[in-house]
Amino acid sequence: MDNPIAALTAALAEDPEQGPDAYLRLGRALHAAGRFAEAERWVGQGLDRYPDAYGLWNLRGGLLRLLRRPAEALAALERALAIAPAEEAARINRGAVLLDLGRATEAKHAFGELVAGLPGSASHLANLARAEAALGDTAVARDRLREAVRLKPGYLEAWLQLAALAGSAPAAALRVLEEGLASNPDAPRLAEAKVLALRTAGRSTEAQAYLQSLLPRLDDQAFVHFHLGDLIVERDRPAGIAHLRRAQALAPGLHHMMLLAQALARDTGPDEGASLEEAFGLAREALDAEGLNPGHRKILSEIFARVCAFAEIDRLGDFRTLGRAWAESGRQTALLRQLPRVRSLDDRLELMEQHRLWGRGVEARAAAEPIRTPQPRSPDGRIRLGLMSSDLRRHAVGYFAAPLFDHRDERFDLYLYSFFEGPEDAAQRAFVAKAAASRQMPGATASEAAQAIADDRLDLLIELGGATAMNRLEVLAWRPAPKQASWLGYPHSGGLAAIDWLICDPITAPEDPRLLLETPLAMPRSWIALGRGAFDDRHAIDPTPPAARAGGLTFGTANNPYKFTREGLAAWAQATAAVPGARFAFIRPEAGAPAFRCRILATFAAEGVAAERVVFHPVRGAHMPLYNQIDISLDTFPLTGGTTTAESLWMGVPVVSLKGPALYERLSASILANAGLGDLVADDLAGFQRIARDLAADRARREMLRRELRGQLRQGPLGDTAGFARDFYAMLARALDRA
After folding, report:
1. Could you tell me if 582 and 707 lie in one domain?
2. Among 63, 302, 405, 406, whose Cα sits 20 to 30 Å from the Cα of 3?
3. Residue 720 pLDDT exceeds 50
């Protein structure tokens, strides 16, 4: 046989009495292949026949350590040393397991004996240094490692340990790694450690340049392509994906697979549907893999949500376990995925606690890395208002923030802070032109960004990004401004005690105070106004209703599928089934993926809606004209629409929504009420179905709204951008006066 593992396995299966060396060879081959559990089973079978085989006991100890069973590993190594007390390999392995078990004093003694027996051994010195470092003897450990690399300059493990002893000082770690690389040019392990140190220090541009310099010499190293792909994929998706594919081909594994799947799922190019389908295939393959961590589960949840793979989402973890794992591992943006999963008051309160868990972790970091507090500035009657967002550009946040720039209160000076890594667009240039100052900080760490903001000596900082890409909510934990607020970007409490206010309105503010961590700062009418850039007359409304053109009514949605739920899809299907001949249109780029379409069609079929009554429009960024194909938009719940609700109304298409207790369940209710359509908001599912049926039957009202709704919006609170800005600035001034 060409496969040595298969040959050894077959030989032992045919004749189990081949001696301990046969089991040892098979165990080592399986170990080399990364098949640790299988190797441990075969070694165990060998020990059943040859219980005095030192080599098998030592190998078993090493395998059990890799399988994270340290107590069993120690017992196996003790047995090995009882057979052969002087064997160095088992003594080294035993010391390592003692360290795993937190028994550093015993490990120090064990490694100390080895150093005494062979003082010129660099590896023994490095192992002793590990034990000393675990006991807090950092200076002694550092000296020991310096001696190790003097004796053996090519000892990479010692260089890596020296760099690790730098702790939270990346500059010191980088100096050590540069020294190690001088002795070992382009050593892959040291080179990768340098990349990681640069990225940890927030020096992404330098990390990318270094990786580019390594490509000609280390093109066959997976880490080069992995990190390079990860660094550039948001700016250059095709090139990033190409590097991530190369990394996975060079070193197939879960982590490489996950980053490739994530990049494919975020592809917005012409092949978006095919990329999403490929990402879904990788995600399903990874779902049963060992070693899934919270980061992997976040990626998988994003992919599964995009194709409505609810069963797969359920397998990732229950609401409490998954949310807390994300919160405790610092993944605040993943908690956005929890909003659609709430089903009860207990869930809503648990979600609040998950955000607090994340917040407490960030606040502990901020306390450990304090920033300098600038001297208060002299009173000059000006109010310095900071707006922190990477989305003040051609983006929904930019559209809704535009009134504050177009109608700025003369008492306020605007300071802008962005972490956006892409090229500046015309909208961003317009915002910057109207600001007193603009700080672009794409590579800054949280504490560095906080210091830069603090140095501007603001009166109030408003964070507008929340969970959207390239935003940094955690910066507020350092409290770079005396008063801080959240608005627009995240429809839930952020989780930081350092955020004083959440800007809302009388409808979006929850009635239950337990559902908001911040103090609500309520606008008198609406939390948003329809700013320039999206809400203008460029997108024409077809005066002929879709029902008249298509021969039947069309419900539809342009909402993001991460807001979809089983219950919501079923409600849409039931509403469609209740109206003879009605269709339902999905205006989403995900519609280009077969996985999305087949799950949607299955849900609608279960409610009696045939496939030909479901329409898919796979578009991105060109969706506004397609509202002319919809008579009625049906909203998502419990997480309702925001931008999509406003867009639908702007195109003359009424929206039926379901209101709940939490802020994120009331966004559409506020928009509809401020549009004069509060009667389209239901309090329960039965009401949602009734409103959808009644509106479907009311042709005259739908035709009137198609003709008059845009003008109605312009005349109301949503279209009064000057009035909105006036109310907004007056509200802030009053709040600061009271503070």
Report:
1. yes
2. 63
3. yes
